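To assess whether ligand presence alters the predicted conformation, the chain was also submitted together with 4'-deoxy-4'-aminopyridoxal-5'-phosphate. Input:
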Amino acid sequence: MIYLDYSATTPVNNDVLDTFNKVSLNYIGNANSFHKLGLDSKKLLDEATNQIGTILKIDSKEIIYTSGATESNNLAIKGICSFYNNRGNHIITTKLEHSSVIEPIKYLEKKGFLVSYVNLLPNGMIDINHLKSLITKDTLLVSINHVNSELGIKQPVEEIGQILKAKKTIIFHVDGTQALGKINIDLANIDLYSFSAHKFYGLKGIGCLIKKRNIKMEPLFHGGRSINEYRSGTPMLPLVVSMAKALRLVCNDVENNYKYILNLNQKIKKNLMKYKNIDINSNDECLPHILNISIKGIKPETFIRAMEKHNIYISTKSACSNLDQASAALLALNKDALNASSSIRISLSHLTTNKEIESFLTFFDKEYNELKFIEKEQ
Ligand code: PMP
């Protein structure tokens, strides 16, 4: 099998799974119970939380565990807009956001919030001057993703955070789901940061919302105080400890992995550039982990199925987007409708081997030629 859909999810690291199993078997107590088993679990929970805090260079009290980035994004956006609704009713975001950011914002729009979308430059970077011009006295929240899931465009969130810091009443949320573990991150000027463990070889079902201590929020769930007042439910100890491990492992090797993946990406790009009907949609502003292309004249679903026959797994757009819709991200970049509706995402990992890429390119060539022929015949 050749798996090239790492941006949808990553396979769990064996050591991470081992940690999950050991903690599940050996720490049976609820971390909120006062007996010894509970206290043992609480001690381990605090250790794992401190470890995550140290890796991300934040106060461990700023960590809120969630079921994943979808929950983190919903909690951040709805939680802020609900808590501070007397402060203002204006949200600024981009057309490059994941559905778990776009949908809660649309929900709030229906409830009376005003939403502005920052213009994008031709390379997909947000137009910072336009962002500044959109700010009004009613602007409450700015939500911008760190790395876009379809194309891999990386936004300068540190610089944006620096600008927004001067506006004391604006809260800055960043969806970091496709960034954490792939690049070094600096959360100094970011108020809220969302991510999911399964994007960095952790388990599915756990994520975080980092929330700076000076910021308040309405919780999504009302129940008992669990680890903190923002997320009720029994502390998910094995998931937390295994996420801390996954984060530590992946953050140890960010630079080397980046260089290695860049090399794989360049190899694929160089090969695909020779096909006349292929457009490479990802540009130099994109992380090398994602390579988005369009094959003109071949439906992406047809091509993906054709590659699957050879046990090669790539994807159309992002796993959470609607297959029937043209890519909002590509349309936002003024790519023509054909490109936007025919895009394919190849996503890479440090686990991807050169041999896998060679096989991928061989089968790509075979299917490209055969499928084009079939579509011509029809
Ligand atoms: N944001 C981005 C940028 C993503 O890529 C994803 C997952 N595709 C999410 C949020 C949602 O993550 P999850 O499905 O783990 O909740």
